[in-house]
Amino acid sequence: MSTPEVQAEIPFFAPSPKVYPQQVSGRFRRIKWVILFVTLGIYYFLPFVRWDRGPNLPDQAVLVDFERRRFYFFFIEIWPQEVYYFTGLLIMAAVTLFLLNAVAGRLWCGYTCPQTVWSDLFLQVERLVEGDRRDRIKRDEGPWDTNVWRLKITKHFLWLMIAWWTGGAWVLYFSDAPTLVYQLATGTAPFAAYLWIAILTFTTYVFAGHLREQVCLYMCPWPRIQAALTDEHALNVSYRFDRGEPRMSLKEARKHEAIDEKAGDCIDCHQCVAVCPTGVDIREGSQLGCIQCGLCIDACDSVMAKVDRPAGLIGYDTDDNIKARALGQPTHYRIVRPRTIVYALLLFVVGGAMIFQLATRATASISVLHERNPMFVVLSDGSIRNAYTVRIANKRPESRPFALSVEGPVGTQIEAVGVAPTSDWRPVVEVGPDQTREVRVLVTMPRGIISEKSTLISIKAADLFAGENVAAKENFFAP
Fold first, then answer.
1. Residue-level pLDDT at 179
2. How confident is the model at residue 10 (pLDDT cuts 50, 70, 90)?
3. What global pTM score does this model have?
4. What span, in angstroms and rounded, lies between the C-alpha atoms of 255 and 246?
5. Is-contact 256 262, C-beta < 8 A?
C-alpha cells in the first residue's frame, strides 16, 4: 500500500524580505547627496521665488493659475490654447529618458527619480534616528521595549512631517504661496488645498517610507521599457567577472595566491548587497531591481582599498566590453553612435522649435465664426450682409485698442455692433488686460462685385499702439 504524498502548502504570495540599506560614502554617494539637496531645495522653495511681471499679473515665479487660466514660468506665460508647449515638454522628457538610457542605463532611476530622492531622504532620517543597518536589524528582531517604541514613533513622526511639507509644497504651485501658507495656518484655505495635501502626504509617506524598492520593482513601468531600449554599448553598473572570479574570502584568497593558484579580487564580503537600496546582488548580472545608483561601486572600492587591491571591480561598463574582456580583446566605449545622435537631434529639433515659437509668438489673437441663421441678408439697396462673431484675445497686462478691418473685394465694408467707427471707418475694439472680448461684426458687399456664392475674406485686428496685426479668414456667402 503506497503512502499518500504529503505536499507542503506553497503560499500564493511570498512577501519580499525587508531591505536594510547600509550607509556608504564615496564619489557616487556624494553625487546623490548633491542632487538630493538641489532637487528638493528647488521643489520646496521655488513657490516663494518672486518675479515682477508688471501690474495686474501675479508675481510668483512659477504658478499654475486656474483662476486666470494661465501657467507662469518666470518670463514665460502660457495660455490654455497653447497647451502644445506642454506636449513639446513631454516629448523632450521622453527623448531625454531615451538618451540617458542609451548613454548610461537607468541614470534617471538612480539619481533623479522622485521615488529615489524621497526614499533616500527617508532612509537618512531612519539612520539618524535608529542607527545604521546592523542596529536596525537587531532592533527589529529583538523585543519592542520602551526605547524601541520611542525611536519608531520619532522616525514616523519625522517621516510624516516631510511628507506633509511635500504635499504642502505641491499645492503652493497653484496659488500665491505666502497667501496660501497664511490661509492654511489660519484654517481659511480652500477645502481642495487640505484634501490634496492629505492625499500627497499619505502617498509620500507610504511610497518613500514603506514601499521603497517595491515601487521600483512592481509599480514603475520604466525598468521594463528601458530594458527593451538599451543596447550593448550603454554604460551600466556591472561586476567584472574576469577580475572577481573565483570569489572567496580574503583568507582563502591568500592561501591560493601562496601556491600560485588564481583567486578573484571579490572577497565575498557582501558589502555591495548591504548598501543596495533594492537589495540586489550586482554580481549576479543585470537585474530588474538594479536602479544603477552606483552605491555598490563606492562600497566595493572602499573594500578594495582596505585589502590593497585596485578599485573598479564594480563600475560603469558596457556589455560589449564585458564580452571583450572575457575573450581577451581590447575594450572601447562608444558614447557617440547613431542611437545617441538621433536622440540628441530630436531634442535639438523639438527644443529649437519650441524656443522659436516662444520667441515669435503673437501677444494677440483673433477668431472669427460665421453666424448661420441667417447665412446672409439682402439689404434694400441690393447689397449683401453677413454677420460674424469675432473674438479678440489680448495677452498683454495692459488694455489695448484694436482697429478692425476687412480684406476682400473692392467695396467691402465692416462695422461692429455697439462700437463707434473712427475717421477712417474702422471700428476700434478695446480689449482689457489679459482678457478676451467678443463682438458681433457685420460685413457688407455691393451685389455687383459678388460673382460666386462663397467668397473668402479676411478680418483683421490691428493694435493702434504696438502695431501688432492678427487676422482670421472666413467665407462670405451670397445668393
1. 94
2. low
3. 0.82
4. 13
5. yes
Residue 388 has pLDDT above 90, yes or no: yes
Grid cell 486656474 in the structure block, residue: 66
If you average pLDDT over every residue of the chain, what do you get? Answer: 89
Reduced to 3 states (helix: H, G, I; strand: E, B; else coil), residue 446 is coil
For the chain, the C-alpha Rg in angstroms (whole number) is 33
CA distance 284 to 234: 18
Helix axes 114-130, 133-141, angle to 10 degrees: 70
d(CA 165, CA 274): 30
Averaged pLDDT, 279-292: 89
For residue 1, pLDDT beyond 50: no
All residues at 6 or more sequence positions from 322 whose CB lies less than 8 Å from its CB, including other chains? 238, 240, 241, 242
Collect all residues with Cβ–Cβ distance below 8 Å to 389 and sequence separation of at least 6: 368, 369, 371, 438, 439, 440, 441
End-to-end CA distance of the chain, in Å?
Answer: 103
Distance (Å, rounded) from C-alpha 87 to C-alpha 106? 24
Its sign, for the CA torsion 139, 141, 144, 145, is negative
CA angle centred on 196, ends 70 and 81, rounded to 5° = 20
Q: Specify burial of residue 298 (Cβ count, 10 A radius: 0-12, 13-18, 19+).
A: buried
